[in-house]
């Protein structure tokens, strides 16, 4: 308890600054609709989504400046807006499976739309309740840089501190746009790969993707975590992919007509799953390593509930969470809702109960994993989908 990290917030805890206002919420909802649609399209087309945090931070700051909004209102609008893109990610990577697996012959009926809405609402609320339990552990007790959160915070701070700091923000945006334009207009290559013939076999050389966002994230997370990310790519493409390709085709390497396509196939269908397995092992190890912090965080939450019920203390604004007296019953209700959802698909009660309990467990695990990975590399690069 005595070793808790303390910081001095920009907006003091005793401040009465406007925060959760109708204009901030309405602006956030409008941005959530737009960013959700954009991320849904991008994810279905390319298989990847991007963080909406930066976009909503800049738009929210610009719009609320017109109405003389506060820093906390900007933060509220940005948070609500960015959630739209995240919910879209949860939808597009899961719901199309019903159609692909022929569970739903058609995907656009009102019944399926209603079921999809219920599933997303249940899962989103469950995730929020789990994050309520994990938030203090991840934010305070773990050494995580939270690169995208820091970047969003700097955007808001720059807007509040006048043009001197804002010019660095817009200079960075301009530099990134210029760099991206060079890629789009083919002045520099977005990517590069080449097969180099050797005495015995060939060597596939591939350059990293040229994207200003990569430079920004790399700068924020620092050389240590950046080196870990880079080493993962080197391990995947420099060791595992060619090694697996060798053992698969060692008896007849001449049968492969396109080694680039073959190496890409091996990476996509074998190496990535090895990486996911490593991620899961790392996740459970992380939870085990965080067991003391998690226990202390939950214990503190129960202590706050008990003190609040007895009127012994008032938790300051910056330390408030959704109370466990609400979070735990909500999780119970959501679990019951999951039983009904699984019953709809299985038409059997016992399998539905088992499935709901299994999903409850893995939901908590992946809430912790996702939160931990967001703290390290951010939302755009998060592989938990």
In short:
The protein has about 375 residues and is mainly α. It contains twelve helices and two strands.
Major sheet details: 2 strands, antiparallel
Distance between the termini: 35 Å
Low-pLDDT runs of 5+ residues are 1-5
The structural class is mainly alpha
> What is the number of independent domains?
2
Shape descriptor reads: globular
Strand order of the largest sheet: 1-2
Helix percentage range:
over 70%
Write down the secondary-structure element order: HHHHHHHEEHHHHH
- Enumerate how many helices there are, as a single number: 12
Strand content: under 5%
Radius of gyration: 24 Å
Give the tags.
12 helices; disordered N terminus; 385 residues; mainly alpha
Fold and architecture overview:
The protein is mainly alpha-helical. Helix 8 crosses helix 9. The protein has helices spanning 22-46, 53-66, 71-92, 96-100, 110-141, 147-160, 163-184, 212-249, 259-289, 291-310, 324-346, 349-377; strands at residues 192-198, 201-207. A two-stranded antiparallel sheet has the order 1-2. 21% of the residues are buried.
């Amino acid at each position: 308890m005595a070793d808790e990290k303390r910081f001095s917030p920009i907006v003091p805890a005793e401040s009465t600054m406007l925060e959760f206002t109708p204009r901030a919420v309405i602006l956030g909802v409008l941005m959530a609709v737009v960013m959700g649609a954009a991320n849904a399209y991008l994810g279905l087309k390319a298989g990847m989504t991007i963080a909406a945090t930066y976009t909503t931070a800049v738009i929210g700051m610009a719009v609320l400046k017109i109405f003389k909004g506060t820093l906390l209102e900007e933060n509220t609008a940005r948070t609500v807006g960015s959630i739209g893109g995240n919910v879209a990610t949860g939808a597009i990577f899961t719901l199309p499976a019903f159609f692909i697996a022929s569970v739903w012959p058609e995907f656009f009926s009102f019944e399926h739309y209603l079921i999809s809405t219920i599933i997303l609402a249940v899962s989103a609320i469950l995730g929020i309740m789990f994050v309520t339990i994990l938030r203090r552990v991840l934010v305070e007790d773990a050494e995580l840089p939270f690169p995208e959160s820091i970047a969003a915070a700097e955007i808001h701070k720059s807007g509040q501190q006048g043009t001197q700091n804002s010019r660095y923000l817009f200079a960075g945006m301009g530099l990134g746009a210029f760099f991206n334009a060079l890629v789009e207009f083919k002045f520099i290559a977005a990517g590069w790969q080449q097969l180099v013939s050797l005495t015995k076999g060939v060597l596939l050389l591939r350059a990293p993707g040229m994207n200003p966002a990569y430079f920004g994230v790399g700068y924020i997370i620092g050389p240590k975590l950046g080196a870990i990310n880079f080493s993962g790519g080197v391990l995947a493409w420099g060791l595992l992919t060619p090694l697996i390709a060798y053992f698969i085709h060692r008896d007849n390497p001449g049968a492969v007509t396109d080694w680039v396509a073959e190496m890409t196939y091996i990476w996509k269908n074998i190496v990535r799953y090895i990486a996911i397995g490593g991620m899961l092992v790392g996740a459970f190890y992380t939870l085990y390593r965080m067991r003391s912090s998690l226990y202390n965080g939950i214990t503190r939450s129960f202590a706050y509930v008990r003190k609040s019920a007895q009127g012994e203390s008032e938790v300051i604004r910056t330390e408030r969470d959704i109370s466990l007296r609400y979070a735990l019953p909500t999780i119970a209700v959501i679990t019951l809702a999951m039983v009904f959802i699984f019953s709809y698909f299985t038409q059997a009660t016992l399998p539905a109960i088992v499935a709901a309990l299994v999903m409850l467990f893995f939901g908590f695990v992946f809430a912790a994993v996702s939160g931990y990975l967001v703290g390290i590399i951010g939302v755009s690069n998060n592989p938990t989908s």
